[in-house]
Design a protein that fits this description.
The complex is a heterodimer. By secondary structure, chain A is an alpha/beta fold. In chain A, 29% of the residues lie in helices and 24% in strands. Chain A has a single domain, classed as P-loop containing nucleotide triphosphate hydrolases (Rossmann fold), CATH 3.40.50. Chain B is mainly α. Classes of the chains: A alpha/beta, B mainly alpha.
Chain lengths: 322, 277
């Protein structure tokens, strides 16, 4: 069953003229992105920083206004006015637990805020619920009296997860949930997330640049570059046989912990991601792509191939084997 | 509340500041009991007497009025001016600063440009213009001084709000579905509180001096009623012959300002959970 359907999502940020405030240019942070998330799966969105991953998350929550496209949640179209109700059904776990918790609030108040905002239950109910959630994420009840600065990074991230869980959402967006944690803590938090998913029947959208993580836990993957979709499909398939040159380069750039197995024909990306203010015309990846051809200055079409979607001119006539 | 008082009593700078202010308030309220003379009583035997002469512990001024007694009575006016005008400035300035910082956009720009226009006037001129509209008198002076402080408060608060607004916990509150009202009062206000307290305590001395300026121009307190600021400005003509006339009111302003600053620092520390232990 489809839980979430995103069609042709567009989020543009205006660059305003200093003096009169008229938009002179647009940063196309998310440009024509479509995907579907099945109930109960882990769907990941990968890409370099600046590719628009987090913008998708905030657009799904209505924090950034859409410039086009539609969001369909549980079969119903979501308009800009509907977000208040949607914000109970979808929650985000943020990357940086240091800045995502209000330093002047006790953990109890932080976790209970969602319940207070939506006026769920009375004081006794909230107390009970908060205690329950805190134990579910593996913290002790006496943490509730503490302030965020008294906790470790991993504990703070657990609080962030508890805050997202308290409203009993159906979909949780994990925005780089482990990126700012120590490696040993990363594994704990990941296990917690996977356990919670199984226990509560949650659906996750995992936003990350960590391909190892994606390979480890996610079912399907969407690869983004400069606000556009490059490739989308089953994670296993993509990892084993990436079709898009960008996906291939991304996967090759993951270090292999074996000096003898160093890949001879690996493609390491050179150069920087182009400025989103002034993206290349046609295929956004053409400036760094080694298969670049004349066709690439035209917008690539969506091509369905081997059970996945890829946006690359190479496969239009299927004349090149990768 | 009990816990708050306990913490207040543990914080040395807060206790010191609080005691200084309490002493001042006490002096102001019980001025007739504490003062050795009437504030307008002239002792012609001891005009511009040095401290200690003729039983005048802080000496007398050019009319032979006891400086200690005038300081005690002056505390009434000066404390009131300081607290009320800073209160007015902080209150209006915080509202404008939060609106300008949180909503930015057209309203924010409008508020800030209006602010810039007010800031471009010399503040004494602005206060005089305000007094011309309101009419002379000590309460009108407090209102005028308070309003003159609004633009700088608005500016400081706005920049603090802009800082806090970008933190992820604000986005997190939005994601939870919190209203703007809730975000402003529950998340932004507590986090800009340190700036507000520090800036208020800094402005206290400014308010006392401003009152002196207005009084000097005949717009504030009317002589012979004393205020610290007006005593200071009267003393400036005799700085060479009778420096004590300026020193004691100056010290009174200084000590009170230190009191407010210490209390401000202490309050900031008490209210910040990160600095509590």
């Amino acid at each position: 069953m489809k839980l979430l359907e995103v069609k042709n999502l567009k989020v543009f940020f205006p660059i305003k003229d200093k003096l009169f405030g008229k938009p002179t240019k647009f940063v196309k942070a998310v440009n024509n992105v479509s995907f579907e998330v099945e109930k109960g799966e882990i769907f990941s969105i990968v890409g370099e920083s600046g590719s628009g991953k987090s913008t998708i998350a905030l657009a799904l929550m209505g924090i950034h206004e859409r410039n086009g496209g539609s969001i369909i949640f549980n079969g119903a179209e979501v308009n800009q006015e509907d977000f208040k109700t949607l914000r109970r059904k979808i929650q985000i776990v943020f990357q940086d637990p240091d800045s995502s918790l209000d330093p002047r609030k006790r953990i109890k108040e932080i976790i209970a805020e969602g319940l207070r905002v939506h006026r769920v239950g009375d004081k006794a109910f909230i107390d009970e619920k908060v205690r329950d959630i805190v134990e579910k994420v593996g913290l002790t009840v006496d943490t509730l009296r503490k302030y965020p600065h008294e906790l470790s990074g991993g504990q703070k991230q657990r609080v962030g997860i508890a805050r997202a869980l308290v409203l009993e959402p159906e979909l949780i967006i994990l925005d780089e949930p482990t990126a700012s944690l120590d490696v040993s803590i990363q594994a704990q938090i990941l296990n917690l997330l996977v356990d919670l998913q199984e226990a509560l029947g949650l659906t996750y959208i995992l936003i990350t640049h960590d391909l190892k993580l994606v390979e480890h836990i996610s079912d399907r993957t969407l690869v983004m570059y400069l606000g556009k979709v490059m490739e989308m499909g089953e994670t296993k398939q993509i990892m084993n046989k990436p079709l898009h040159p960008y996906t291939k380069a991304l996967i090759d750039s993951v270090p292999v912990p074996n000096p003898e197995k160093r890949n001879e024909n690996e493609e390491i990306l050179t150069g920087e991601i182009p400025s989103p203010l002034n993206p290349p015309e046609g295929c956004p990846f053409k400036t760094r792509c080694k298969y670049r051809m004349e066709l690439c200055s035209k917008e690539p079409k969506s091509i369905k191939l081997e059970n996945r979607v890829v946006f690359c001119h190479l496969y239009e006539s299927k004349n090149l084997e990768v | 509340m009990k816990a708050f008082l306990k913490k207040l009593l543990k914080n040395k700078s807060a206790v010191t500041g609080f005691s200084i202010i309490l002493l001042n308030v006490f002096l102001a309220i019980f001025a007739p009991l504490v003062a050795t003379c009437q504030f307008d009583e002239m002792d012609f035997m001891y005009v511009m007497a040095k401290p200690g002469e003729g039983g005048h512990i802080f000496g007398t001024d050019d009319y032979g009025r006891d400086i200690f007694s005038r300081l005690v009575y002056g505390a009434r006016v000066s404390l009131m001016v300081g607290i009320i005008s800073v209160g007015i400035g902080a209150f209006i300035g915080t509202i404008l600063g939060i609106i300008a910082g949180y909503y930015e956009g057209f309203i924010g720009a409008l508020i800030m440009r209006f602010n810039d226009a007010l800031l471009s006037f010399p503040y004494v001129l602005l206060a005089i213009a305000m007094m011309a509209v309101l009419g002379p008198g000590i309460f009108n002076a407090m209102i005028a001084i308070g309003i003159v402080m609004v633009p700088s408060f608005a500016r400081v608060i706005r920049s603090a709000v802009l800082n806090v607004k970008e933190e992820t916990f604000i986005t997190a509150a939005k994601v939870l579905g919190a209203s703007d009202f809730r975000i402003i009062f529950s998340h932004i206000l507590p986090n800009i509180f340190p700036s507000l307290i520090i800036y208020s305590s800094l402005n206290f001395s400014g308010a006392v001096i401003s009152e002196a300026t207005l009084s000097f121009l005949g717009l504030g307190i009317q002589p012979p009623t004393p205020s610290w600021g007006s005593m200071l400005s009267e003393a400036k003509d005799f700085l060479q012959v009778a420096p004590h006339m300026a020193i004691f009111p100056g010290l009174a302003i200084l000590v009170t300002c230190i009191g407010f600053n210490l209390l401000g620092d202490g309050l900031r520390d008490i209210l910040d959970p990160r600095l509590r232990k």
